[in-house]
């Protein structure tokens, strides 16, 4: 198996901030394309699937972590995960309970196959093409699962976006506390938090953009998309600068 440099960024505070904003865009951008631009769920899905394939191809071509392309893939996968869930629920009439169970089962299957093949689920060792394939498959399922699970709590169970988001924040905080003080396995803690930040981001997106009668703040999706994309861009530029400095330091040390 061809070895490459690790293709995943370090898990820092910036990582989680960008991830949550990317998941929020996954919710709001899908709605913007589907509703505001009148593309419809099916056409939006075709467009986003094509773009995702392109950016994934570029991501796999690189032999190391490149911030701008990595986070571009995350944003597109976030949108695609939302569209997959919405197509099943809105177009095919599948219940949110069913999609949540199916996506959860799919994610477990990916994790089992990944572990049986590679003996690890660590994101610090995404250094082969096979591991990267498993990684992105898992990411796609986490986004689809998060969309369905988040909608199930906030809409089907009637908790509302604010309460549902608060529940996700509290659960993530408990996971961090268990990792920090109770020696919860780091890999398990990462993936649990990663899964939960998806419905958290979706709840934030819906809270900001849905109508007042539906429990939202009715902020136009175009404005939210612009603000969050600009914020992500700024953080990615910052991470790119850090990555260049890190590479330069390694090169200077090696020489």
UniProtKB/TrEMBL annotation:
Q: Which UniProt keywords apply?
A: Membrane, Transmembrane, Transmembrane helix
Q: Where are the transmembrane segments?
A: 12-33, 39-58, 65-84, 96-117, 133-153, 159-179, 186-205, 217-241
Superkingdom as given in the UniProt entry: Bacteria
Q: Give the residues annotated as coiled coil.
A: none
InterPro entries from the UniProt entry: DUF347
Q: Name one Pfam family in it.
A: DUF347
**Record protein name field:** Membrane-anchored protein
What is the organism field in this record? Pedobacter segetis
